[in-house]
Amino acid sequence: MTAMTRWEYLTVPLLIHATKQILDNYGSEGWELVQVVPGPNPDSLVAYLKRPLSAA
């Protein structure tokens, strides 16, 4: 039987003026961008990220 990948998830507010820097920082920690959606106000965005759980 094949082992199934287990994931951990993170939601991150994105600052419009620093979006690339924020995503690059999380990407360097192994986080993969899943989706970006509008935030609670018109000037904000929220990123949903995932990465594989390390074996415990």
TrEMBL record:
InterPro entries hit by this protein: YjzH-like (IPR025234)
Protein name per its UniProtKB record: DUF4177 domain-containing protein
Source organism (scientific name): Brachybacterium huguangmaarense
Pfam families per UniProt: DUF4177
